[in-house]
C-alpha cells in the first residue's frame, strides 16, 4: 500500500546562497487524436486557480530526480520515467532556483496525496504556454518541445 501523504514544511529542504532549491517536472504523454500529439499535465496551485507544473522543495534525503518524481506523485498523481533535464531557472524574486525534468507518464493514479487540494488537466504544449503564469515555466515547456520528437518522428517545434 502506498502512503497518500505529502511532505510538509521546509526544515529538510535544500538552500544555496540563500535561495530555496526547487525541483519539478513536466509530465507528458503521447496521445493519438486525428494526428499524433503530445500532451502535458498541469496542476492548479494550492493558492488559487493558477496552473503550473508539479514542483517543490528539494529535500536533504533525496536526489534531484527523486524529488521531481515525488512532486509528480504528490501534486499530480502520476508516475513515470524521467527522460532528461530541461534546465535551471532563477525565480523573478531571486529567492528560488528551479530545476526541471521531462517525465514520460506511465501511470495516472486515481488517488494521490494532494487530490483534494489540486485539479489536474492534460493540455497541449501550446495551451501550456498560454496558461503558465511564470515565464520560466513557458521556457521549460519550450525546452520540452525542442527535446521530444513528435509521435510521428518529426520535431514538435516547427517555429
From TrEMBL:
Alphabetically ordered keywords of this record: Hydrolase, Magnesium, Metal-binding
Co-factor(s): Mg(2+)
GO molecular-function terms, A-Z: metal ion binding; pyrophosphatase activity
Domain annotation Nudix hydrolase: ranges: 18-145
One Pfam family per UniProt: NUDIX
Family: Belongs to the Nudix hydrolase family.
Name used for this protein in its record: Nudix hydrolase domain-containing protein
Organism from which the protein derives: Musa acuminata subsp. malaccensis
Organism taxonomic ancestry: Eukaryota, Viridiplantae, Streptophyta, Embryophyta, Tracheophyta
Amino acid at each position: 500500500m502506498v502512503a497518500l501523504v505529502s511532505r510538509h514544511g521546509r526544515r529538510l529542504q535544500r538552500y544555496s546562497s540563500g535561495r530555496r532549491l526547487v525541483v519539478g517536472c513536466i509530465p507528458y504523454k503521447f496521445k493519438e487524436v486525428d494526428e499524433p500529439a503530445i500532451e502535458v499535465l498541469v496542476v492548479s496551485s494550492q493558492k488559487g486557480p493558477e496552473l503550473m507544473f508539479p514542483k517543490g522543495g528539494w529535500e536533504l534525503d533525496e536526489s534531484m530526480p527523486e524529488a521531481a518524481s515525488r512532486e509528480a506523485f504528490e501534486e499530480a498523481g502520476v508516475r513515470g520515467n524521467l527522460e532528461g533535464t530541461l534546465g535551471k531557472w532563477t525565480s523573478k524574486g531571486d529567492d528560488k532556483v528551479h530545476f526541471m525534468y521531462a517525465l514520460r507518464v506511465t501511470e495516472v493514479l486515481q488517488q494521490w496525496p494532494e487530490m483534494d487540494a489540486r485539479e489536474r488537466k492534460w493540455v497541449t504544449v501550446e495551451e501550456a504556454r498560454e496558461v503558465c503564469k511564470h515565464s520560466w515555466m513557458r521556457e521549460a515547456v519550450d525546452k520540452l518541445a525542442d527535446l521530444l520528437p513528435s509521435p510521428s518522428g518529426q520535431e514538435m517545434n516547427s517555429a
